[in-house]
Amino acid sequence: MSKYDYLVVGSGLYGAIFAHEANKRGKKVLVIDKRPNIAGNIYTEEVEGINVHKYGAHIFHTNNKEVWQYITQFAEFNRFTNSPVANYKGELYSLPFNMYTFNKMWGVVTPEEAAAKIEEQRKEIKGEPKNL
Questions:
Q1: Nearest residue to 58 via CA among 36, 34, 40
Q2: Based on the number of CB atoms within 10 Å of its own CB, is 102 exposed (0-12), middle (13-18) or buried (19 or more)?
Q3: Is the torsion defined by CA of 25, 34, 42, 10 positive or negative?
Q4: 108 neighbors 114 (Cβ within 8 angstroms)
Q5: Residue 117 sits in which domain range?
Q6: How many angstroms separate the CA atoms of 27 and 75, rounded?
Q7: CA 89 to chain centre
Q8: For residue 51, what are the β-bridge partners?
Q9: What is the DSSP annotation of 57-100?
Q10: Does residue 131 sit within a domain?
Q11: Which has the closest alpha carbon to 57: 83, 80, 73, 36?
């Protein structure tokens, strides 16, 4: 007879949640991880009253209401909108590409004009593209 019902290797999101839910259901779970903390890459530690992401910042996003309700029982989340930009020769461009990006790059104003410009540039490509 084993001491544990489950062995979980790695305590990132999946491992930690699985272990938590199994334990809630009366199962004995042994969690092992090479790091001294749980939560994998999303681990935070408090430094002078501020939660600091030890392994780099992470964004949790979902449009699944059930998942959101589940995960927010464990932590408070800040509102965040990911709006990356690219700096090319001193000009900023929205990413991922959208009509604003295409308008700024080429002066086009409709999806049809953007598609035509992309097709025009595609014809210039010889062999396998080496960049974006």
A1: 40
A2: buried
A3: negative
A4: yes
A5: 85-122
A6: 24
A7: 28
A8: 46
A9: --------HHHHHHHTTT----------EEEETTEEEESS--HH
A10: no
A11: 80
Q: What is the pLDDT along the chain (132 residues), one digit of tens a residue?
A: 689 999 999 999 999 999 999 999 999 999 999 999 988 998 999 999 998 999 988 888 899 999 999 999 988 888 888 888 888 889 898 888 899 989 998 999 999 999 999 999 888 888 888 776
Residue partners of 105: CB distance under 8 A and separation at least 6: 93
* Two tokens, residue 83: 């709006």
Q: Per 3-state DSSP, what percentage of the chain is helix, strand, and coil (rounded to 5)?
A: 30, 20, 50
- 128 inside domain: no
Q: In this structure, are 14 and 44 located in the same domain?
A: yes
The predicted model scores a pTM of: 0.61
Rounded Cα–Cα distance for residues 84 and 125 (Å): 27
